[in-house]
Structures are given as C-alpha cells and as structure tokens.
Specification:
9 helices, six-stranded mixed beta sheet, 2-enoyl-CoA Hydratase, Chain A, domain 1, single chain, 9 strands, alpha/beta
Length: 245
C-alpha cells in the first residue's frame, strides 16, 4: 500500500496527492517510484478520464530530496510518463513549488494554483542546474521570461507563473477554478482526449527524445561536483554557500 501518494476518485477523475509532508513533498526515490506506479495504474484504467496531481501540506513539492534523491533517469521517466499518459493530467497547487516540483508542474497538461502559491527555480543557488526538468519546462514556457528565473533562483508569484506558461490559471479558490475544467474533460470522448493530448505534447516529447540522455548526464555530473556538495551542505545547515558575496 502506498504511503507517500494519496488516491481518491470522484466522477472518473483520479486525484493523486503527494503526501510526504515531513519532507515538504520532496522528490525522493521512494516518492518518485510510488507516483510512477500510481500513474501507471491510471493509464491502464479505462474508467479514469483525467488525473489531478495535488498535495497535502503547504508545499506542492520542494524539489529533489537532497538526502534521498531519485536517480536522474527515474525523474526523466516520471516526467515523460506524465506527458505521455493518455488521459489529461491537471496540477492543483495551493502551496509552494520549488526546483524539481516545477518539472512536475510543467509536465502536466493543465495547471492551476491558488493566489498564495509561490514558485522558484532554486537549483542555481545550491550549485546545480535545472537540467532534467528542462525537458518539459523549456518547450512550454517563454524563453526570455524564463531566463531571469532560471539564472537568479528568485521567488515569483502565480501571475508571473501564468505569464511564463507554467500555469494555466490562478484563483483565490483553485477548486472553483478547476471545476469547469474537470467538468469539460468529463464531457469529452476518451479516444479524442488521448489523440488531442498527443497533438499538444508532440513538441515536448521531441525534446525528451533529443535531449534526455545529455541532460541526465549533466544532472549527474553537477550533483557530484564540489559546488553541489557545498551548496547542499549550506542549504541543510541553513547558511549562505561559500560563493555568496
């Protein structure tokens, strides 16, 4: 039985909830594996018309679990699985999203967040780069707007996330905003949904086919670097890294 992914269903919509609040839903090897397993179940279930990916606690995901990170190829596989799932995947965010969590967000077909959510690509601040998550992020965002956030690690708000292309919509009541979207998906023919999603994700999957191996290697190299060791140690010790001026 899964201990890190909550599962509920209502009117053919399966909700998968990241439920590792003690680590702020960080992407550990175990969480990635359990989420991949739950998504595989959804792909095989003809009664599932859409998947909602959400969270418990105040953080959607804090990014990679620095104490138990998933192998880069496992994260690549999870992101591709979301993109390739024949049913639409809808992100529901009511908290903070950091680093690898933004990869999950970008892999989803539709993403909605409350107006209190916050976002940041924090990889550069711990000595690595947003390598693997670039596979879904870069094809779905505005490159000029994205550059600032990739390069600075600054925190930004939901309105900026919409402008970037990371979010579809933001609202004070995210469930109210998602209700007509989910009802719309329930009215669609499953085969038509799958083929329409295939049209929409073709460019993203081309990026996976072309760049996944190189970005996986880059991620592994950077995480093994001296800068990464210093950055992660500083993060865990809640201090500035040695390079901060």
């Amino acid at each position: 039985m899964s201990t890190l992914i909550g599962r509920t269903r209502a009117r053919a919509v399966e909700t998968l909830s990241l439920d590792a609040t003690d680590t702020r839903n960080a992407l550990s090897a175990a969480l990635v594996a359990e989420l991949a397993s739950a998504l595989a179940d959804c792909a095989e279930d003809q009664d599932v018309r859409a998947v909602v990916l959400t969270h418990t606690g105040g953080t959607f995901s804090a990014g990679a679990d620095l104490r138990d990170p998933p192998p880069p190829d496992a994260l690549v596989g999870l992101l591709r699985q979301i993109v390739e799932l024949p049913t639409p995947v809808v992100a529901r965010v009511t908290g903070h999203v950091r680093a690898g969590g933004l990869g999950l967000l970008a892999a989803c077909d539709i993403a909605a967040a409350s107006t209190t959510a916050t976002f940041a690509f924090t990889e550069v601040r711990i000595g690595v780069a947003p390598a693997v998550i670039s596979l879904p992020v870069i094809p779905r965002t505005d490159p000029r707007a994205l550059a600032r956030h990739y390069l600075t690690g600054e925190r930004f708000d939901p309105a900026e996330a919409v402008r970037l292309g990371l979010l579809t919509t933001t609202a004070d009541d995210v469930d109210e905003a998602l209700a007509p979207i989910l009802d719309g998906l329930r009215r669609c023919a499953p085969q038509a949904l799958a083929e329409t999603k295939r049209l929409l994700t073709a460019r993203v999957l081309e990026t996976f086919d072309r760049d996944a191996a190189d970005l996986t290697a880059l991620s592994a190299r950077l995480f093994a670097s001296d800068h990464a060791r210093e950055g992660m140690t500083a993060f865990l010790e809640r201090r500035d890294a040695a390079w901060v001026v």
